[in-house]
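Thanks for the sequence, V.! I ran Release factor glutamine methyltransferase right away. Repeating your input here for the record:
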Amino acid sequence: MSGCEPPGSEHGTSVGAFLCQAGQVLRAAAVEAPRLEARMLLAHAMGCRQEDLLRDPRAPVAPEAQARFREALAARARNVPMAHLLGHAGFWTLDLLATPATLIPRADTETLVEAALGAFPDRAVVTRLLDLGTGTGALLLACLAEFPHAFGIGVDRSPEAAALARANALRNGLAERAAIIAGDWAAALAGRFDLILSNPPYIETAAIPGLMPEVALHEPALALDGGADGLDAYRALATALPGLLAEGGKAVLELGQGQEAGVGALMRAAGLRVLGCRPDLGGIPRALIVGRV
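Predicted structure:
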């Protein structure tokens, strides 16, 4: 640990010493941004902001915070996702609780919110909104925040995920405009919706063990596994969407890399019209937009 104060030295329990040591631990664990993540973990353990740490690197770290930090640092070095250690993650304009019960909201998925806004320039026309496989509630709640006249329903097979989405609706002041259901996607739903969103499981079963360890080891397989070809959930969506979309309604579906043609073919075979596909920031086709013919 050259360059860091050892734990027994005069400044070994200072903010600077802990950040230096933690950066080396995370670098050795192949964490992408070790110093940034060290600051995030120490600020969380101390109950302060990251910028507070930088003002006085010689400030002492209280014993209780030291223990919390060491525990979190060891977990992060074992590839436990940062969002699980902090207990929350940002998505769109929201701050969402995050637990191992659901996928962690990702920036790529914000592409679906952008696509929904592009599909409905007049935000007042969306009054009924549905999110199939809601997870944390990220898509449902982000779109409710953008479509002020909408009431939304989120459905997830996992009761734990549904409970988390309800908590996130409360956390973000949207509980009065959202209903969260634990169930088998569209099976228990009646009526039609102006906007339907879904980030379904789309990873090929055989590919899951090769994902980055934060995902393969710590996120729920139910939310990842799309079957042998990754398209099982889209087949279910193709069956359900024609009966759920209102006249003029649109569905926005997240895609995995290389799935645009296959999913588009499934939707057309179900009698739906493919209206476009929006790429994410990396240029990968990410948000497929479909509507009734």
